[in-house]
């Protein structure tokens, strides 16, 4: 067996169906007497419900979280934070990312309530955008002290976002399988996550509010977040961060459009590592399995449809090559341009 090392982070995880009943005890445990609620403009009703559940412990609400965590938005949230002594984020990667950015700056406790499948709530990775460039750091200080998974919050998630967010989470699992620091535990989590998505996402196409399928997808997302937190991500995540910062592409749909192309590229050098994923998808090839699943789910397939310029591959390739990611297959700028040309749909 290959030697491995595993870093874990202190974090309380609550998985269930009634987030409001758990919030007050958690806030008390973490000393939040003046809590700020963080969310996106589309989640104001949920934020109001959290504020009511907190009662006198609610201090302020900030509803300006946006994708890719721009530093100027974090600055605005800091101005609202005032004398708050903790915060609760409600939403997908945008809200959770803002909470992580605030935690890095303030050291205050953070309770995350994810409503999508991004996995950000589990990981020590923070991506921030400044002047069109997205950079990432890995720091244990950004890991939320607690995560509350509530299946009921995902029942109304639109099908298109359910699918693209599921592919976002699957990207973590796929890249963990060929990570240079992979371990038996992360392999097991990754394969279980991929199998869960492959089984449950097609059910949601016909029955978007199926409770068991929603619970399975949410649990698979949790497992994907675990491997994202523990392992080094490769080319796929590098491309996603570059394209997100450069062209402000929607995060989850971008992952969905990119992932089959990156896995096809990497499978030439990592077929054995990806074989369990192929088996979980019911195909000889992991890339073919992903492509078939994307077609079945009507997942986003072309970056051009998401807003990437048809002539944007060259600039993106240059940025990727400034700080290349560890990857099972070596690549150069021309490889990136070819991959992106295929993903563009041009």
Mean pLDDT: 94
**Largest sheet entry:** 6 strands, parallel
What shape does the CA trace take? globular
Estimate percent helicity.
Answer: 40-55%
User: Uncertain segments of ≥5 residues (pLDDT<50)?
Assistant: none
Distance between the termini: 44 Å
**Count of DSSP E strands?**
8
CATH-defined topology of the largest domain: Dehydroquinate synthase-like, alpha domain
CATH architecture of the largest domain: Up-down Bundle
**Any idea of the CATH class of the largest domain?**
Mainly Alpha
Strand content: 5-15%
Helix-strand category: alpha/beta
Provide the spatial order of strands within the biggest beta sheet.
Answer: 1-8-5-4-2-3
Order of helices and strands: EHEHEHEHEEEEHHHHHHHH
Put simply, the count of helices is 12
How does the SSE layout of this entry go?
Blueprint: E1 12-16, H1 19-29, E2 35-38, H2 44-54, E3 58-62, H3 71-81, E4 86-91, H4 93-106, E5 110-114, E6 125-130, E7 133-138, E8 146-150, H5 159-177, H6 184-206, H7 211-230, H8 235-247, H9 251-281, H10 286-297, H11 313-322, H12 333-344
Parallel strand pairs: 1-8, 2-3, 2-4, 4-5, 5-8
Antiparallel strand pairs: 6-7
